[in-house]
Specification:
By secondary structure, this protein is α/β, with parallel strands linked by helices. It has helices at residues 47-55, 99-102, 109-120, 125-138, 144-147, 157-169, 187-204, 215-221, 239-244, 249-256, 296-300, and strands spanning 5-16, 19-31, 36-40, 62-65, 68-71, 74-75, 92-95, 175-179, 207-212, 224-229, 232-238, 306-309, 312-314. It has one domain: P-loop containing nucleotide triphosphate hydrolases (Rossmann fold, 3-Layer(aba) Sandwich), CATH 3.40.50. 30% of the residues lie in helices and 23% in strands. Helix 3 crosses helix 4 and helix 4 crosses helix 6. It is globular and about 65 Å long.
């Protein structure tokens, strides 16, 4: 079955006086209608750049190339960035990390939501205003009608995030990309936003790409998980497989770093080192400098994605050796 989104060989880079830096390298995946894909990895893994590539909002300083990038059957890889405008907001929408920097500070929030309705759905101003209040109620905004005329700075972080979700849903998109939607929110508000996203996804049937650092969020919402590291895909698998039988050392390390309340507290597990800088990526496996199981071949040979089982792919030269923590 043709996917809602199909990406083959997407690469993004920055060319500067100091050299060319690789931000995404040969990323390929597809997304089916109604599917929830979790994208996880440390900061610097390329998750947000991937999201911006899908909606055509990459900064001008970045260059992108793909063998194919198809959204709803429309091939966009060979067309200028302006071609994304026909889909952005209507077919695909995005919730950004920090709503305070994404919302216009000098426009009332109701006006910002209604603007999408008048531009993308051709509504009259009166109809757009009525629909805006309905959207605010749909995202469970307290006193939705009175919030119509407020400015972003007058709202709490959780309320601003609800406004961002309302804007994203205004044109009834088929794909929603949520880039760290709970950043800077306290724990109780995070739970409310995640519950809201789950309810909206299930009630509307839209596809969801959820980008997060939080493994717990992935476990709760995602059906399939894509683990990214330094601009490459490390592993892709159903959520149950990722948690029960992770095949990539990086995936294992991420899961090991999550505290377990069932065990006595001790020193938390960490991943030695840091994500490599975009200007100094390793020539072989990009995780090799931090991998406790690395061999000489790992530093010289970039691993391709290998199919381990149906729906389970891993970018490691010796993935079977790490299953259940065993080294081959």
């Amino acid at each position: 079955m043709a996917g809602l989104l199909e990406i083959d060989g997407l690469s993004v880079w920055l060319t500067a006086a100091s050299g060319r830096s690789s931000i995404l390298d040969d990323v390929s995946f597809s997304l089916q209608p109604g599917e929830v894909l979790g994208v996880v990895g440390e900061s610097g893994s390329g998750k947000s750049v991937l999201a911006l590539s899908i909606v055509g909002l990459l900064p001008a300083a970045l260059s992108a190339r793909a063998r194919s990038l198809r959204l709803l059957g429309d091939e966009l890889s060979t067309r200028p960035r302006e071609a994304f405008r026909a889909h952005r907001g209507r077919d695909v929408a995005m919730i950004f990390q920090e709503p305070m920097t994404s919302l216009n500070p000098v426009m009332r929030v109701g006006t910002q939501i209604a603007e999408v309705l008048t531009w993308r759905r051709g509504m009259s101003q009166a109809a757009a205003n009525r629909r805006t209040i309905e959207l605010l109620e749909q995202v469970e905004m307290p006193q939705a009608a009175s919030c119509f005329g407020t400015y972003p700075h007058e709202l709490s972080g959780g309320m601003r995030q609800r406004v961002m979700i309302a804007i994203a849903l205004a044109a009834n998109p088929k794909l929603l990309i949520a880039d760290e939607p709970t950043t800077a929110l306290d724990v109780t508000v995070q739970a409310q936003i995640l519950r809201l996203l789950t309810h909206l996804q299930r009630s509307t049937g839209l596809s969801l790409i959820l980008i997060t650092h939080d493994i717990g969020v992935i476990a709760e919402l995602a059906e399939r998980v894509m683990v990214m590291y330094a601009g490459r895909i490390a592993e892709v698998a159903p959520v149950g497989t990722i948690f029960d039988a992770p095949a990539h050392p990086y995936t294992q390390a991420l899961l090991a770093s999550v505290p377990d309340i069932r065990q006595q507290r001790g020193r938390l597990a960490t991943i030695a080192g840091t994500v490599p800088d975009a200007l100094s990526m390793p020539s072989g496996c990009r995780f090799a400098p931090r991998c406790p199981h690395r061999r000489d071949v790992c530093a010289a040979t970039p691993p391709a994605l290998t199919v381990l089982a149906a729906g389970h792919e891993v970018g490691c030269l010796r993935p079977f050796g790490y299953l259940a923590g065993r080294v081959a």
